[in-house]
Predict the 3D structure of the following.
Amino acid sequence: MHATRTLQLDDHWDIQLNEAGKIKTTAKATALATAQAAANECRRFLADSYFDHDVGLPHFQVELGQTFGAGAPAQKLRSHLRRAA
């Protein structure tokens, strides 16, 4: 489970600054914050996180360099994405 506080990104997924010049964050569980957290999990490569190498998706092993279609790689990736989200 992730913390409820997250960066408040704009429509281009860029950080925003408040009136004081500090990075905007949000503590609300908005639909946008939830979608942002799910997308971040799905983009993370396995062993990419600095403090926790056990999280992330095995993109290299599942999809990169593989023939991709309706077969096993696609089903495997969908399964990983569902769990991450």
